[in-house]
């Protein structure tokens, strides 16, 4: 059984469900899995709770330099343990991906991104990912230590954890250049009017809607159909609508009975947050847009024209 | 201050992406283009200059086949002052860490204070290159930046994680990857396209670039494709070609038929 190390990310005392999912997956492969946690002033019993999620042992890097949750000091902290492992596994996440990438460069390891399946074969770890707009499944193995970065929501968390694992504190030496970037504040998320994860119908606004001035068209459609408005990162980053409305990898995961995507390309990081919707309607003028590959109803055309017509047709029912 | 922008040539969105069954690598025989996400990286460099920062030069850096010259021509038309292409048969089949090693080796020779990458590659859908390049360069990195300010000898960057928006500061030299919403890339003017032909485009071999040959190409790749298979079949959806909004009644009918209204 190869030695598996699972990096477990956390934020403000909350363990990343993406990391916990990968930990549970690793444990299901049959061997003893080691979890790795980095932070500052970390409580041993909190770290030990990872035993309930499948860790046989927890390595804890606890150092003031790991306080800010930035990736580069974490690469320094995990490097030595990673070199001894056969594979280092990461759940999806912005910080997790940065750690995985930095580590791949640091130890010259292969990295498999967007993995939706992890298995053991020929004495090592193999990872499978959907690729090329999810039109093929590619299985990769590794020479030397392998680094696996999971796709968001690929692996479920053990929902009834019990038991603890022994915690071993590891020595940490953080390089000066790794500490050059400094956290300078978090923007408080605007209080959301509605919780989009509860909505039965969502109408999503993407960049194809042209600009913030057209968001009302989508709001009207949502109202006419009895749903709420959701959004892609592109329009949230651009300030059209607040972050609380974002669906996807760094936003919310939703599973409404109906999801109408207006001017949304269907990027993987959006898809992972809404692929479980009952029925997906895509309105996109580009017939090659990835969303048409997984929509139940693909409307090829101009969303600026179609959305108001749809609102009208619903109202006149 | 000098800026380096790392760019990639990818199969164009409208040509069918496929893996070459003989090599399990991306089939590059179709049309290719500059990675659309890299347009935002180039635009950001130009906007930093236009915003009044003292930008000496903007250099576009690419690893790729000889055909990637076209992608670099576009980068030049979009505002890069010069371009460097590392192209060498020995680099084909490099994995992510190998590619990052090559980009870092080239960037290290460009005297760049700020290195900008796009949020991800459109063909691989991976978002790991910036952090890997930064580790080789031993420079601070901020990925997925939605808002970037260059302040004196440092940067201030806002980026989204699963927890909302964080602001991160770093001294230069630094590496960033930018979100596709950070700006709206301009279309190159005819004059800029013509002007690009006169800008320097240098092609380097792996040896010129100072690449460690053990880390690159098929033989240096540490991740190996074992198999390629079709995904689980899913039922095909309904496609409706709309004209002037005439699809609305049909969509309503389908939704009503599914009991969704
Ligand atoms: C680490 C990471 C995390 C991310 N997390 C998320 C996330 O949580 N959620 C998320 O959504 N994204 C996320 N992204 C970003 C994602 O990769 C895409 O960039 C984003 O989803 C694109 O948003 P979009 O579909 O609105 O815009 P685009 O990709 O620009 O798509 C716009 C679409 O509109 C179509 N269009 C244009 N005009 C019209 C018109 N008049 N009528 C009809 N269609 C039109 C175009 O054909 C295009 O397909 C993440 C990326 C990374 C790297």
Quick take:
Chain A is of the alpha/beta class and 317 residues long. Chain A is 26% helix and 29% strand.
Can you tell me about this structure?
The complex is a heterodimer of chains A (317) and B (261). Chain A is 26% helix and 29% strand. Chain A is α/β, with parallel strands linked by helices and 317 residues long. Chain A has two domains: 4-179, Rossmann fold (3-Layer(aba) Sandwich), CATH 3.40.50; 196-316, TPP-binding domain (Rossmann fold), CATH 3.40.50.1220. In chain A, the strands form four sheets. Chain A has a seven-stranded parallel β-sheet with strand order 7-11-6-1-4-5-12, with helices on both faces. A five-stranded parallel β-sheet of chain A has the order 15-14-16-17-18. A three-stranded antiparallel β-sheet of chain A has the order 8-9-10, with no helix packed on it. The longest helix of chain A is centred in the N-terminal third of the chain and has 14 residues, at 71-84. The termini of chain A are far apart. With 261 residues, chain B is of the alpha/beta class. Helices cover 27% and strands 28% of the residues of chain B. Chain B contains eight helices and 13 strands. In chain B, the strands form two sheets. Chain B has a nine-stranded mixed β-sheet with strand order 9-8-7-10-6-1-4-5-11, sandwiched between helices. Chain B has a two-stranded antiparallel sheet with strand order 2-3. In chain B, strand 7 and strand 8 form a beta hairpin. Chain B is globular and about 65 Å long. The termini of chain B are far apart. The model of chain B has no long low-confidence stretch (mean pLDDT 94). The chains are: A alpha/beta (317), B alpha/beta (261). Chains A and B meet through helix 3, helix 4, strand 7, strand 9 and strand 10 of A and helix 3, helix 4, strand 7, strand 8 and strand 9 of B. Flavin-adenine dinucleotide sits between chains A (94, 206-208, 232-235, 246-251, 263-265, 267, 269-270, 273, 283-286, 289, 302-304) and B (119-120, 127, 144, 180).
